[in-house]
Amino acid sequence: MIRLKPSISNYFFILFLFLPTVFGNANEPIQHMVKVFVPSLSITGQKLWQIQQRVPFKLRYRSIDSVLASVTTTALPQFTALIRQEFARSTTTILDSQPLSKMSDVNYYVLDTSLLPELSEHTNLVDTLDSGRVVLVRANDSDVIGLPVHFRAKLPPEILVGARAPRLIKLTFQPNIELEQIIANISPQPWRQIIQTMTLNPDVSTPGYQFLSRYALRVRRAIQHDGQPEPDSACDNSGEWIARQFQKLGLVVGMDSFQHTRSQIGAGKIGTYTMNNIVATRPGRGPNRDQFYLLVAHYDSISSKTKGWQQQWRTMPAPGASDNASGVAILLEVARLVRNLDLDYSIRFIAFSGEELFLYGSKHYCHQIKSETADLSADQIIGVLNFDLIGHDQDGNLDIHVVYDERSQWLANAFKTVNQKYEFPLDLRLQYNPSFIYSDHSPFWEIGIPAVLLSEESSFESTESIEYIHSQADNMDKITDSLGELAVKLAVATTVELAANNNSYVPKAQEKEISKLLWNVILFPNPVNLDQGESLSLDYFLSEQSKVEINLYNNNGWSIHNQTYRIGKIGGKKGRNSAFRWNGKMENGQLVAGGVYTLQLTALARSGTSETTYLPVALVR
After folding, report:
1. Is 459 exposed, middle or buried (0-12, 13-18, 19+ CB in 10 A)?
2. What is the predicted pLDDT for the residue at 512?
3. Residues 12-41: what's their mean pLDDT?
4. CB atoms within 10 A of CB 208
């Protein structure tokens, strides 16, 4: 492992280190996995985008205080220099280096640290991440897919980095008597019955027979290359049952098929399996019917923690009650309960397969969107609500976690606002955590689409779900009706509030609400006369020490100025802060054009709580 220091001599050292490799074979450039650690919590998408405009790199992983990036030997010195320039207290470390021509065959995974004793001899330990909670390894799918794991993810080839301001939906919250009546009549029994049916998975073609599993490899279109018997159709059977339920509700339903091949080092191709995502669409009835909200959940299950799973997956039960029949049940209940409402925006329900095998179903769907081969474009998808592992409560405190990244904070806030409006007795916990890439929201993050995860848990330290997840113990005994009832109510209310015809896109400058973390925000002077030498000043109060990010956007949504203040320092102190000044000049020293701009002010506390407000700025030239 090579730790880089920000000095010219080290840049020559880096080049010297790799000269034998580069010049030994000019056709074999090297790609490095580089870790950037910034202890001040100041890594933002805006800054990463600014660096990427000056030096090429691929973002592979991101947490609150660190990123992993793929960087070539040629770009490495400039990348390191720009990182040091943007993040004064950063450290940059080369974790791994591979020939660029072989990168398509090199896979990196993040796993929880408890799995270290289980790793095979073919697995290469690369580093520890997120304060030692997870490890980064280089391995083959076959080496890690059977691990008895709760948290496990495969790093994507690249995560989209962008500077464009996220879209915002303004909830007007007009009285909705019909919605209030629907919420008042919601019972957990239909939700529980769906989970019960999915855990048993009765065979539609053989009355009385139950598959008791929805493992993604148990599909009828399968070819075994290793001489083993072909699997049955347990997963297909469940997917077809889900499709019929959506059809009964009058939705337009289709199958999105994709192929998955399993291989093993030394054995070659083991099997080829064709899986299905279930896609059901409820068209909107207003002027925004070409815009979609996606409600998603995976329907496959796994029991990899149960002894003998790798040898007996063709017959071993994998009930998957909370993980994730509970999430699919929420989709079906929302579809049932809102089917007669007059909604402006369209809603698409997707039940993904292959989630337990590194998110294959959602990655396939997002690949189609990115490659423009899907029936929806990225611009048509306003936001994604992912429900995963949301059926069990152990301690009597009914809590649901909403995990979000920078682009999806407004979606998380929508759930918070709805929960407060309807006074649900629910402990709703918003968690800013871009490193939580273990469910089907993650592929949407990778292509720049806002997405949130709703789950009973989002912590590595929790014991509520860790004990039973991915085992035969994830059965109906784990289902908590009171949590399920609140989850359905929250999902229905938020979906309707977002998709109702009284909501519309609004400029960020019109969003005025100030939170308890960030308050008494004042811009002055406003308008600002740049030709007379005036500068824009900003005054605000923080209820606790926070990292503060200030961005100014033009009418096209592009950032023209950025300022960051560290936690506890000037601009990020508890109480009043008045350090921000801007003279209207861009980085090249030129004054910006006159017009109305949008100032985005974001505060992020150490606890993970974050709040954002948007204010209009008039610049006069």
Report:
1. middle
2. 38
3. 65
4. 6
Residue 7 has what pLDDT? 40
Beta bridge pairs of residue 7? none
How far, in Å, CA of 31 to CA of 57, rounded? 10
% pLDDT > 70, the chain = 87
Buried b (16+ CB within 10 A) or exposed e, 393-425: beeeebebbbbbbbbbbbbbbbbbebbeebebe
Under 8 Å between Cβ of 453 and 441: yes
- Between CA 231 and CA 21 the distance in angstroms is 46
State the Cα–Cα distance between residues 236 and 230, nearest whole angstrom. 14
Mean per-residue pLDDT, 333-356: 96
For 509, list phi and psi in degrees, rounded to 5: -65, -20
Specify the long-range contacts of residues 223-232, CB closer than 8 Å, at least 24 apart. Answer: 223/271, 223/272, 223/273, 224/270, 224/271, 225/268, 225/269, 225/270, 225/271, 225/272, 226/267, 226/270, 226/271, 228/270, 228/271, 229/314, 231/273, 231/314, 232/314
Residues 401 and 540 reside in one and the same domain: no
Q: Domain containing 456: what range? A: 169-209+235-259+275-504
Question: Is 230 inside a domain boundary?
Answer: no
Place of tokens 């075994």: 224
Strands (E), 461-512: 504-505
- Residue 40 is part of a domain; what is its CATH number? 3.30.70
Q: Among candidates 251, 248, 211, which has minimal Cα distance to 232?
A: 211
Residue 394 dihedral angles phi and psi, to the nearest 5°: -110, -35
> HSE-up of 28 (CA within 13 Å, CB side)?
12
- Alpha-carbon span 242 to 201, nearest angstrom: 11
